[in-house]
Fold this sequence. Notes:
Layout: E1 57-59, E2 62-63, E3 75-76, E4 83-85, H1 94-102, E5 105-107, E6 114-116, H2 124-132, H3 142-145, H4 209-218, H5 222-238, H6 242-258, E7 266-267, H7 268-273, H8 282-290, E8 294-295, H9 301-311, H10 318-333, H11 346-365, H12 376-385, H13 392-409, H14 436-443, H15 448-460, H16 464-468, E9 475-476, E10 479-482, E11 485-488, H17 491-507, H18 542-556, H19 561-568, H20 572-583
Parallel strand pairs: 7-8
Antiparallel strand pairs: 1-2, 3-4, 5-6, 9-10, 10-11
Bound molecules: zinc ion (4 copies).
One zinc ion binds at residues 77, 79-80, 82, 92-93, 95-96.
GO molecular function, one term: DNA binding
InterPro entries: DNA_brk_join_enz
Amino acid sequence: MPAPGPNAALRLPPKCNACQSNRVAWTSPRVDFCYQCLPGGPFAAPPCNRCRARTDYFSQGLCSRCHPRSPEHIGSCKGCLAWGVYPRHNWTCWSCRWWQSHYPKGTCAHCGRASHVSDRPACRLCLENARLEQKPGRAPDVAAGNKDSQQLFFANMVFKRRVTPVPDYVSWAGRWSKKNKNQLPYQPGTRFNDHALEQLALFEMDPDPDVLRQRLLVEDSELTRYCAAIVANHARRYGWSVRQRNAVIQSLRLLQILRPTPTAKVRASDVVCLRRYDGTITSTLDVLAEADLLIEDVPTRVERYFNAKFIESGALPDTMREHLQLWLQVMLGGSRQAPRQLPREPETVELHIQGLVPVVQTWVEAGRQSFAEISKDDILAALAALPTGTSHRHFAENGLMSLFKILKGRRLVFTNPMRGIDLTRVATNLPLPLDPAVIRAELDSPNPAVALAVALVAFHGLTGKQVGELQLTDIVDGRLHLGGRDIPLAAPVRARLSAWLDHRNRTWPATANPYLLINRRTAPRLVPGGPSFPWKESRIRPRALREDRILHEIHATGGDVRRIYDLFGLSVEGATRYLKTVEHPDLRNEDQPGTQP
Ligand SMILES: [Zn+2]
Ligand SMILES: [Zn+2]
Ligand SMILES: [Zn+2]
Ligand SMILES: [Zn+2]
């Protein structure tokens, strides 16, 4: 750097007197003009004395890159010796400008230069060299990094850096962040232990809710982090809200605190107990079940019903109880050994139990020990004791049929006593028409799900079950594919369909549920909406509405059973039930004055 003063060889030359923009051509001997403005000029500037560049002449025989006082002259940083800084920034790179404003002047203990040094004390160059060889998770070793030599840098090329490289298993797609304890990384290979030995508690004591809340704040373990990652993954796939995701992570934290053996898989009964501590039950069970971490130990509704009806009283003889339990197991789980059987709907099994209870009770009271003792006469006597004209007999017959069929199949009874027993006919009622004004009002319901469901039943005669189980993929280009039938949707249905789909996309944009009709509860899952959805919000029931539509059709066609059979997929008995109404005096021509059969 040239010393200042009038005689300094390379002091900053004054500007040209004429143009006031270029520097003077040379300073010794003194000239007041640049080459462009020299009297008798303009003259071509000579090449640079140092680099021989023919463009960009500055002054004193040097170009603007080579002249030390030119604003374009590039040099090394005063702090870190990095190449590529301009004099207008006081020959200092941006990192060193920050460094100088944070650390005092001093002598570096590693390279001996006088510079701004950290508390180590190390200059910035030594620290940067140590960072080149830094191990993940360790502080930079300044002494070892500068032992033999130093690597110089280009200035201003060091951008914001991460001190420790991110491990491979942390993906940025999941937006992991150190700030959020729900997204901390965990050791690879973290798993629940399938064979963890559980120490059962001698006394069950509920923890203090305040202590629990404090533990919840600091709870952290590899398994907790593993759980949180599972939930985050599940939540992303099912389009959960942040709130729902965090609630489930919170519940899993609670579980990890409460359970005496945190490494064992999770019992469903433990999850159900979380209700006491404001835990989330259903979604937590969903996540655990899908991750295969759940032990199902909560009896289902049917199993509870069965236990309440048969087991809890303790009056049942052992053989009978074992046989009934076998029957329940086959009904619910199906059977792979002969006679093979598919699992039955829990609702069906419940009706069978309902029918079996009074019959079994009379036999137990009569001192029977086993179903093998039951004869055809016993059954007829038991059935005769049931009130006539109600559905009790029908349910009892069905239950007994099912029970003895399975017991016979397993050779637990010698003969099937139900053989040759005439089944009672189911009492049927006459289908009644609905008030058209109510249907019209429900078709224009402000609830788009109700409007669509009512329209589907009213225009196409679907059952409530069919509507609930429609999937998005069943409707293609305004045509509904249903059980092999291809139904072109009516215009009013299509209008309500698009209104519903708009609403669905707006409310649950990320849902993965394949079903057409979803609600707040099922949007984060893959299950249909349940039998009362969306009919709970409506004044009509799908069965009544469908019956009304079939009635309407059968009156319009003059009792064409074949047509009803095709249109609505009814059985012959079912269609005949409607046919009766055509002759029924009360119903004749009621809503169809012009179509008398
Ligand atoms: Zn000039
Ligand atoms: Zn030059
Ligand atoms: Zn620097
Ligand atoms: Zn140093």
